[in-house]
Structures
1.
Amino acid sequence: MAVVTTSHEYTCSIPSARLFKALVLDSHNLIPKVVPSIKSIDIVHGDGGPGSIKQTNFADGSHFKYMKHRVDEVDSATFFSKTTLIEGDALGDKLECIVYEIKIEAAAGAGSVTKSTSHYHPKPGVELKEDDIKSGKDKATGINKAVEEYLLANPDLYA
C-alpha cells in the first residue's frame, strides 16, 4: 500500500515558456493533434485552472477508453503543474489515483528540461512493481517527443 514515486527527465530544444504553454496550458487542444491514440481532451468542469476536471478520450481501438484528471496547481511563472488522475481505465484494479508533477526548466545552453514526478497510490492490499508503471513513463516520453516535433515544425506556435 506504499505510494510508489518515480521521476523522469526529458530534455528538448524548445524553450521553457513555449513548451509550458503547449504541454500544459493548451494541452487539451494540442495533444489530440499530435498523439493519434488521443481523440480529444475536454474540460468537463472549470476553466482549465486549479479545480478543473479534464477528460481524455482515446481513439477507437486504443487500450483505454477515457481518463479524468483534476488540475491541482498551475504556476505559469515557475512552469510548474500538478494534476491527479482520478478516474478511468488507466487506474485499472490496482490504483486509487496517480499524482503528476511537471516542472519545466531552462536547459544549459538552450532548450528546456521537463522534470516529471509521478506518485502512484495503490488500492489497499496492492503492491506495485516497476513493470506496472513502466508503460506510463514510456507514454509520457512519447507525448513529449510528439509535442517537441510539432513545435519544431511550427515555430510560430506558442511563441
2.
Amino acid sequence: MEPERRAFLDRLLETPSPSGFETRGQRVWIDYVDSFADEVWTDDYGNAVAAYEGGGTELALTGHADEVGFIVRRIDDDGFVRIGAIGGADRTVSKGQHVTIHADDPVSGVVGQTAIHLRDSGEESYDDIGEQYVDVGATDREEAASLVSVGDPVTFSTTVEDLHGSRVAARGMDNRIGVWAAAEGLRRAVETGVDATVYAVSTIQEEVGLQGARMVGFDLAPDAAVAVDVTHATDSPGIPGKRQGPVELGGGPVVSRGSANHPKLVEMARAAAEDAEVDVQLQASGSRTGTDADAFYTSGGGIPALNLGLPNRYMHTPVEVIDETDLRDLAALLGRLADRAGGVDSFAVDV
C-alpha cells in the first residue's frame, strides 16, 4: 500500500470513534477526502458525504465511522467507574484490558479482573458488561467524578500493529476499513474521470442499529449504494462447525449474494473485479447482511444496495486482524465499480 494511503488508514484506526461520538474520526476522514472531492458536507448528526460530480448515475460508496465500545453509567462510592456497552461489545475480552475514557481530557484506566489466585476454581464465568468496572486510580467517588462524567465514552487503548507479511491488527477495523475504502474508491473515480456521480459516505451509528444509513438513504437518495464493511473470516481455529464458511483472510474482497444485495449490483461487482484483476469471494446472505446495506435498500422507495465485505478475524475485539492486500484489492474493485456505474441506465430487475 502506498505510504500516504497507509498513513490515512492508521490515522483512522488510531482515532477513537465509538457510536454516538464519531466526530473526531469524521474530521480525519473529511480532511482526507477534501483534497480531491468536488464537495464535502455533513448533516446534523455527523454523517459525512464527499461528492464527485460526474453526471448520470449516482452511486454511493459507503462505510460506517463508528466502533463498538463502552459508556460510563455511574461511579461507585469507592471510585470505580461502572460501564455499559456501546453496540456489540464483547464481555469475554474486556476484563484486564487498558482503556481510555474520553472525558474533557482523556483518562487512562483498566477494566478490573480478579487475579486467578483469588478466584474460585471451576466456577469461571464471564460477567456482563454492566457488572464490569474501570479502575482509573481514584480512591473515592469524588476523586473519580473530578475526572470523568456519566455518559463519557470508553474505548480500548490498543493501537495498530503490523503482524507478519501483509497482516495488520487493530481495534476498530470494523469499520475503519469501510470508510477508508469508500474514500479510496472516490479518489480513484476522480482520477479516472468516470461518467457517473460518485459519493463517498461515512455514516454514523451503524453499530447501534444502522441509524446513519437510514438518514443518508433518505436524504441523499442515490441510484445505488454499496455498503463496505468487514465480514467474518472463518479460517482460524475455534470457529464452530456450523459457522465455518468459505471466507479466508487474503482471499480477496467478499461479494454478498441474497437478501438486500441487488442482483444487478452483484453482477456489476463481479465484473468490476475482473476488470481490476482482483479475486473475490462469495458469501450467502439469506435473510440480512447485518450492515448498512439493510438500511439503504429499504430507504424511501428502495435503493438498490450491495454489501461488499473485507475478511476480518476476531471481530469486536481489541485485536481485529485483516490482510492489507484484501483492502488494497477492495479499493481497486470500488474504483472499477464506479467506472461501470456510468454505463447503467436503470437498476430495475427484469421481471
